[in-house]
Amino acid sequence: MKKLIVVITVCFTINSLKAQDLDGILLAADDASLLTENYLNPAIVGLMYSMNSGWFTTGKVHKKFGFDLTIGGNLSFVPMSAQTFAFNPGDYEFVSLPNGETRIRTVMSEDDTVTRIDISIPDGDNRFKVASFELPGGIAQDLPLNAVPAPTVQVGFGLPFKTDIKARFVPNLRFDDVEASSIGFGLQHDLTQYFGPMDKLPLNISILGAFSNMKVTTDLSEEELNEDVSTSNGEAEFKMNTWTIQAIGSLDFVLVTVYGSVGYNSGQTTARMKGDYTLRYDVEDSNGNTIGSVEETITNPINLDFEASGMNATLGARLNLGFFKIFADYTFQEYNTASVGIAFSFR
Q: Sign of the CA dihedral 73, 334, 12, 144?
């Protein structure tokens, strides 16, 4: 599972970050899903916002058969409040924190200190299955500006009726035992044409709708899991769908374009751990004495859903050097997002 964490955090740049080992969380039984959700939430939410960004750098569409190639990167900044989450003992049945902590670091924390989690599961006859594992600290120090990045490569093509079609596509890629792919499409339609004499001004107004999908799977059967967890057919699967709609306005001059938008973003993500996993516990009596050990097998233990949505506003500027463009913009939303990049555009 550790490679999956890195892939979803940086959208395929798995080798640039340290690995996170979360397999021991399966020992938490029915508490594993809630712990995993709380720990991963800011990375997944941030990635959804990053995936929805960088679709446009002007309100002006191409002439028919014009096209562009855009290479950029989006950085969604994680709020300080999302770097930790509250540990409420009443929310969990079997886990506790031995040092009395009340907050746990998330994957996007700037603090990489691990958190020890103790597990005690009643097993009848005053016996308890016990274990412990270390929940990794954050990876924010290994990321640029404590932000969730998403690189983009996008092409745009001018259609009739003053409409652009946009596409983002990453073919099936493999990183060792990690497989990842991504695809996205968008349509941007010029509205200025309906406003009569306004089409003679440098002002351009358009509307954009875009959708993207990403899927990542990791074969866990060859992974080095926690010493108390093993699998022969384990697989982690991550699917993300995002969409955005934006009303865009721009002032397009020869050397500079100033642009902005207001709109709405939404995203849904599923994270699954599939397969059979063998868990090993010590067995203690009611006095805390170890009296043996036990193994049990669980199937498809993690099944999580994440969502993010909300209004946003973007401000940006683009430098026009003939067909070569340089742009940067900033989007105000739940996880504020910066986008920068270059484009080759031929009208």
A: positive
Count of H-run helices and E-run strands, the chain: 2, 18
Residues 173 and 178: their CA atoms lie apart, in Å, by 8
Residue 221 belongs to what domain range?
A: 2-346
Torsion of CA 325, 326, 331, 337, to 10 degrees: 130
Each residue's pLDDT expressed in tens, for the chain with a length of 347 residues: 444 444 454 443 333 333 445 678 899 989 999 999 999 899 899 999 999 999 999 999 999 999 999 999 999 999 999 999 999 989 999 999 987 788 999 988 988 888 899 999 998 888 999 999 888 888 887 777 778 888 889 999 999 999 999 999 877 777 677 788 889 999 999 999 898 777 678 999 999 999 999 988 888 876 666 788 888 888 888 899 999 999 999 999 999 999 999 999 999 999 888 999 999 999 998 888 888 999 999 999 989 999 999 999 999 999 999 999 999 999 999 999 999 999 999 87
User: What's the predicted TM-score (pTM) here?
Assistant: 0.89
CA-to-CA separations, 47 to 43, 109, 138, 220, in angstroms, rounded: 6, 15, 16, 23
Angstrom distance (rounded) from CA 327 to CA 262: 18
> In total, how many domains does the chain have?
1
How many angstroms separate the CA atoms of 91 and 312, rounded? 33
CA-to-CA distance for 187 and 165, rounded, in angstroms? 5
Cα Rg for the chain, rounded, in angstroms? Answer: 24
